[in-house]
Amino acid sequence: MAKVMAVNAGSSSLKFKLFEMPEEKVICSGLADRIGHKDAIFTIKYNGKKDEKVLPILDHSYAVKLLLDALIKKGIIKSLNEIKATGHRIVQGGKYFSKSAEFNKDTEKKIESLIPLAPLHNGAHLVGFRAFKKVLPNTPAVAVFDTAFHQSMSEEDYTFPIPYEYSKKYDIRRYGAHGTSHQYLSLEAKKYLKGIKHPKIISCHLGSGASITAIKDYKCVATSMGLTPLGGIMMGTRTGDIDPSVFNYLVTCTKKSAEEIYQIMNKKSGFLGVSGVSNDSRDIIAAEKKGNKRAHLANLIFFRRVLDYIGQYYVRLGGCDLIIFSAGIGENSDIYREKICEGLKESLGVVINKKVNTTLRGKEAIISDKSSKIKVVLIPTDEEVMIARDAYALLKKKRK
Ligand code: AMP
């Protein structure tokens, strides 16, 4: 038995979950949010209790100190030595990492060199890692990459049709994202695919960031996100795929810089941009109910994009045995699940069990009807447990 800490550091947040491994029991979890502000929020959940404090947290190092102090003060652990390994989520592993890697100088250097490919994420992950390293210098640490699962794509699936020398010189290709989630979901799905020789899965991670992945034999063959998490289906604030000339034309029309338009495509588009209401699908549904036409259009575009990708991947896989819904929208919204399944009825024979679907929130279950040609399941994702598994695997290797 060993305690391992799974860490997900963002630019202004630090999420954590402490596990007892190999049981995968969650000992405590929490979040430092609004890091860099005087009114940051530190939340920790343990033993069925939840403590929340508003206080200045000016950097990630202080967030880590708060967390480790809280573990001792609240009696969750007696000494920091009880934490035997840490695992860190890293969004971009580029061409270097097709699986998790132990943190060392070389790993750190490679993650740092990939900052231009994940400017909002990789830098923040490193800050989080270094803050832990300062306090736990001898504790083994593992980097778990969002892109690793997608490294099994074939060349025609990951190469963009730009001049080939640019692809090579600048490492431009489809890297995808949410790989840790899609991998977790495909492993959890094994129980629904017993007896099928070469299982074909379409995994829909629909949250504020959203991606769809085609999985064959538990390996990724295609995924919707691209060079960065901006590609693929429409999202809360991101465009997803669009004709690249829109970018150039917007620069010309608005006289804004390329960087400003890029930011708008990342942060002001998607549900938010089309509806003008919100990036949150709950607000979009509420506005649509009140007759807001732009909110309705935002939903129509979202459904169209999701259905287009599912159709594409059905062909890519040569069929499909299982469709998985997960993440914020996929786990919590029966409305979105129902609409998507209805859009797949005529072409793919998907039939949803409305009674099961409407009562279901955040719990694993089959939501398709017995008559459905493809099984559809809701599986809550758990990226942290994947991180903890890899941290524990590293620890076991070190102990040998
Ligand atoms: P995630 O990024 O996976 O945490 O997902 C967050 C998003 O899930 C929110 O921005 C909402 O759009 C969506 N969401 C969460 N709960 C619901 C719900 N009950 N109904 C519709 N959408 C939801």
How would you describe this protein?
By secondary structure, the protein is α/β, with parallel strands linked by helices. The chain is built from 16 helices and 14 strands. The protein has an 8-stranded mixed sheet with strand order 5-4-3-2-1-6-8-7, sandwiched between helices. It is globular, with a radius of gyration of 21 Å. It starts with a strand and ends with a helix. The structure holds adenosine monophosphate (AMP). Adenosine monophosphate binds next to α10 and α12.
Enumerate the strands of the largest sheet in spatial order, edge to edge or round the barrel.
5-4-3-2-1-6-8-7
The rounded distance between the terminal residues' Cα atoms is 15 Å
Mean pLDDT: 95
Rg is 21 Å
Strand content: 15-25%
Oligomer: single chain
Largest sheet: 8 strands, mixed
Helix and strand composition category? alpha/beta
- Strands, count: 14
H/I helix tally: 16
- Secondary-structure element pattern, one letter each: EEEEEHEEHHEHHHEEEHHHHHEHHHHEEH
Bound molecules: adenosine monophosphate
Low-confidence stretches: none
The backbone outline, from C-alpha atoms, is globular
User: Percentage of helical residues?
Assistant: 40-55%
